[in-house]
Write a structure and sequence with these properties.
Blueprint: H1 2-15, E1 21-25, H2 36-45, E2 49-56, E3 62-64, H3 76-79, H4 97-100, H5 135-149, E4 154-159, H6 162-166, H7 172-182, E5 192-196, H8 199-207, E6 214-219, H9 231-234, H10 237-243, E7 249-252, E8 258-260, E9 266-269, H11 272-278, E10 282-283, H12 298-308, E11 313-316, H13 319-344, H14 349-363, H15 370-386, H16 389-412
Parallel strand pairs: 1-2, 1-11, 2-4, 4-5, 5-6, 6-7, 7-10
Antiparallel strand pairs: 2-3, 8-9
Helix pairs in contact: 1-16, 2-5, 13-14, 14-15, 14-16, 15-16
Domain GP-PDE: 20-326
InterPro entries: GP_PDE_dom, PLC-like_Pdiesterase_TIM-brl
Protein name: glycerophosphodiester phosphodiesterase
Length: 416
């Protein structure tokens, strides 16, 4: 009986390794960020969730844009050459929706140098007339694509700097909630999630605006100009425990989840994910970029965050790449667990050994250590000659489980 319990416990682990969620950061990296085209591509690529940012215009329209200013992603300086403030920037809140409609959106550039931030992405000098959009249009797009494709994607709405909008006597969170209410998007089961770096604002949304929508707490190490929230406290165990009464997940900068050396190689994990899971919170770190990442291998980075740091999802500019990496890894685990199920039905310890050796040989190039598989095969053969069949069957199963765990640990050693 113990053998059956042990075996099916292992199968539950192996088969229960559902891939993490993939969140398309500002849509996808292949088109100018946050445009309806970029959001549509993220939906088509299979991103589980599409992340967007909202700011308010002068006439209280919710504009989909990452910054509170326009200069990094639009031609505002060309269209409105005399509207900038003394710091040289043109702010969304200084323009009406009608004025913002005139602007074209381009791939992000450094406003000071006009140099494209990610040179290998969509050309910033392209004449394709991408436009800014509103939250209403983005909601309509999501619901329309979900209906037309039968694929139920979700929308992660980041409210940009609520405290900044308060300076203009505007409650951006209230306007966001009212907009969602108009679409009857009010429940925790609806395909809408809200996040912000201002953790106190999340509490305001939950307890003063009485929203039942899912909430994510964004966290960063670069606090200046981002939020007044005390991240040192909120990423402590006590802070995470307090957050668990209000939010459903943490969305930290990836540097808060793992520790890197000066070369960008991973040295180990922090306690953030462990504490979050202890209090039933998911963890979705940001931002994973194929064209800008720490260390020497994007694939190893993703594997580490999934298997070692045990995050629940990835906020990424490249959802298609992450999905492919996760699919490759999931396929290996599924193949292994399927082989185990078939093998367990045999009554012959010799057959068990042969099948197991074949499984190891087949998958060793991508998953297992050749040395480990050879050593284990020798060990099993030795036990075959010294133990009776019932004992050997039990031991084979036990060793098989231990070896799979051992080789997984061996894989993790590559990152240290």
């Amino acid at each position: 009986m113990f053998v059956f319990v042990l075996f099916f416990y292992y199968l539950e682990i192996c088969q229960g390794l559902q891939r993490p969620l993939v969140i398309g950061h500002r849509g996808v990296a292949y088109l100018p960020e946050l445009t309806l085209a970029s959001q549509s591509m993220a939906h088509a690529y299979g991103a589980d969730i599409i992340e967007i940012d909202v700011c308010l215009s002068r006439d209280d329209q919710l504009i989909i844009i990452h910054d509170t200013y326009l200069d990094g992603v639009t031609n505002v300086k060309d269209v409105f050459p005399n509207r900038n403030r003394t710091n040289g920037r043109n702010y969304v809140i200084d323009f009406t929706l009608e004025e913002l409609r005139i602007l074209t959106v381009r791939e992000r550039v450094n406003p000071s140098t006009n140099v494209q931030v990610y040179p290998l992405r969509f050309p910033s000098k392209s004449i394709v007339p991408f436009r800014l959009s509103t939250l209403n249009e983005t909601i309509e797009l999501l619901l329309g694509l979900n209906h037309a494709t039968g694929r139920q994607r979700q929308l992660l709405i980041e409210i940009k700097q609520p405290e900044y909008h308060v300076l203009y006597n505007k409650s951006i969170s209230k306007i966001v909630i009212e907009t969602l209410n108009a679409y009857n998007l009010t429940r925790s089961t609806d395909p809408i999630i809200i996040q912000t770096f201002n953790i106190e604002e999340l509490m305001h949304i939950r307890y003063n605006l009485h929203s039942q929508l899912r909430l994510f707490a964004l966290m960063t190490v670069y606090q200046a100009g981002v939020s007044v929230s005390d991240y040192d406290f909120y990423r402590s165990e006590e802070g995470i425990r307090n957050l668990s009464n209000t939010v459903q997940a943490l969305a930290p900068d990836h540097v808060l989840v793992v520790d890197y050396d000066i070369n960008g190689e991973i040295m180990g994990t922090s306690n953030l994910t462990k504490w979050a899971h202890q209090y039933n919170l998911n963890v979705y770190p940001y931002t994973f970029r194929k064209d800008l990442f720490p260390g020497s291998s994007f694939e190893k980075l993703v594997e580490y965050f999934w298997h070692i740091a045990q995050v629940d999802g990835f906020i990424t500019d490249h959802p298609d790449v992450i999905l492919q990496l996760l699919q490759n890894d999931t396929t290996v685990n599924t193949t292994f667990s399927t082989t185990l199920t078939t093998t367990f039905n045999t009554t012959s310890s010799t057959t068990l050994t042969t099948t197991f050796n074949t499984t190891l040989t087949t998958t060793s190039s991508t998953t297992f250590s050749t040395t480990s598989s050879t050593t284990l095969s020798t060990t099993i053969n030795t036990f075959n000659t010294t133990l009776n069949r019932s004992s050997a069957n039990f031991l084979h199963l036990f060793l098989l489980i231990i070896t799979f765990l051992f080789t997984s640990i061996k894989r993790s050693e590559l990152y240290f």
